[in-house]
Amino acid sequence: MTVLYRFAPILAVLGLAFSLLSPPASAAEIAVAGLPPEARETLALIRQGGPFPYKQDGTEFGNRERLLPSKERGYYREYTVKTPGAGDRGARRIIAGGGSRELYYTDDHYRSFSRIRE
Questions:
Q1: Residues 6+ apart with CB under 8 A from 24
Q2: Where residue 99 falls among pLDDT bands split at 50, 70, 90?
Q3: Distance between CA 22 and CA 115 in Å, rounded?
Q4: CA distances from 88 to 14, 33, 37, 80, 92 (A)
Q5: Which residue is catalytic, options 29, 60, 78, 118?
Q6: Is there a contact between 29 and 115 (Cβ–Cβ < 8 Å)?
Q7: What's residue 34's pLDDT?
Q8: pLDDT over threshold 70, residue 94
């Protein structure tokens, strides 16, 4: 018992570090039908391989926020979802992983994600 007590602070720190590095066990989901029309348009472009309206579309998404499952570099790609009335690309994106096996939607510029359920 005293051995465990001695290592408790280290184990606590390791547990905290692991929880910070691990993505949430279950992310929110959204059905394709629940996406805004512009997101459904972007999804159709992803499926047909473009052409995409923004030069950044199809570029690597680094998952620096660590909110999506951890994968090898280059696994995720990001695509812009047009925002009506926005003077720039806006905050909405679709993130495609593994080609398009995993799809995620964010409307708050990577602060949260919902897995797209097809």
A1: 67
A2: confident
A3: 17
A4: 42, 25, 18, 10, 11
A5: 78
A6: yes
A7: 97
A8: yes
Task: Please state whether the predicted TM-score (pTM) of the whole model is above 0.85.
Answer: no
pLDDT at site 60: 97
Catalytic residue chosen out of the listed positions 41, 72, 102, 109: 109
Q: What would the two tokens of residue 8 be?
A: 């408790």
Return d(Cα 76, Cα 26) in angstroms, integer: 18
DSSP characters over 60-109: E---TT--SPP--TT-EEEEE---TT-SSS-S-EEEEETTTTEEEEESST
What's the rounded mean pLDDT across residues 21-42?
82
Residue written as token pair 């949260």? 112
Q: Does residue 41 have an active-site annotation?
A: no
Domains of the chain: which residue ranges?
27-117
Say yes or no: domain 27-117 is CATH 3.40.50.2300.
no
Whether 109 is catalytic: yes
